[in-house]
Amino acid sequence: MQNVDHLVIGAGAMGSATAWQLASQGKEVALIEQFGAAHNKGSSHGGTRIFRLSYRTPLYTDLAARALPDWRELEADTQEHLLEQNGQLDHGYKEAIDEIAISLDRHNRPYERMNASEAHARWPGMNFEDHVIYSPDGGRCFADKTVETLINRSRELGAQVQLNTPVLSIALDGDFAVVETATQTWRTPSLVVAAGGWVNKLIGHIVKLPDFIVDAGQPAHFQPMADLAAESYWPSFLHHGANGRGGSPLEASAYGLYTPGEGFKVGTWSDRKAIDPDNRDFEISQKHLTEMKEYVAHWFPGLDIESAVATTCLFTNTPEEDFILDRRGPITVCSPCSGHGFKFVPTIGKITAELALGGKQNTPRWQLPN
Fold first, then answer.
1. How far apart are CA 294 and CA 285, in angstroms?
2. Mean pLDDT, rounded, for 108-125
3. What is the pLDDT of residue 246?
4. What does pTM read for this prediction?
5. What is the mean pLDDT of the chain?
6. What sequence ranges are listed for the domain FAD dependent oxidoreductase (predicted)?
7. CA 14 to each of CA 58, 151, 208, 357: distance values in angstroms, whole numbers, following the listed order
8. DSSP H helical segments within the chain, as ranges?
9. Given 3.30.465.10, 3.40.50.300, 3.40.50.2300, 3.50.50.60, which CATH number is that of 2-44+145-211+322-366?
């Protein structure tokens, strides 16, 4: 049995960011992952993810404002370019855009409001609903590069990193957690579980968790028309349409951003079924792809709909789409964070490391149920 001060399960974005934070403070930490680095089985893979401050919910605008300098800290520590601010567009019904403006005003962040025709004149490859807001602070995070950078930097700072190491069982032994893998058994007073869709399987028997919804989204990349190939035509976007998924401030009917080398990614919501992440078929739904093409044909005249290349990505959410960042006994839960979490990676790493070191979660929406 090997004793370690901190053990992190899950070397995706959040787990590797937590390990980086702990290792940066000189703590003894081990990071284990059931798959390889930047694998495609979970929620952290891919070329890019949206970065934005333009939330309808002040809690997440506040968190994004914290994240911006944290990204720059990570870049300075690793000498890697991981966040690019090339702008964020939100459009849709007036109430949603008004809420975004209020959130940005709270932080004195710049933005421009315009109508649909004004926005189309500026970004002719896109069509818009009547109310549009542009935030120059938005942009994109380089997802795969970020995860690989965090794993490598954690290792450089002294963390033990074990990839392709599935966890077989987790049990409690007084104030310690005991974690068994195929090769060894770990004993730790501080276990961080940042395992996305596998969290309930790993610790649902010892920690009371909220309902987790595990399903697979299906975005697709489209190529711009030749006369609109410049990246400046394609800032990231959220469409707050009337056909959203129930009106939650954290939901939108579509999202997208430009991924260098792949094209413009567009994701729309459809009726997704709960899945078992260990028995996922990665099959592309032709029905959803057809619906996606119809959406793109209407809202993106500058994209070639026949160029679509679809992929799948695991999503794990609570019904409210809030995060769970909290501790019970020796176990800190850092999940689910998919859907809209990647932009907060270095900050969630800080928050989770603080919990692992004995801190308390004072944000009710991120707390575990009693």
1. 14
2. 98
3. 44
4. 0.95
5. 94
6. 5-355
7. 22, 11, 21, 16
8. 13-24, 58-78, 94-106, 116-122, 143-156, 199-203, 286-299, 345-356
9. 3.50.50.60
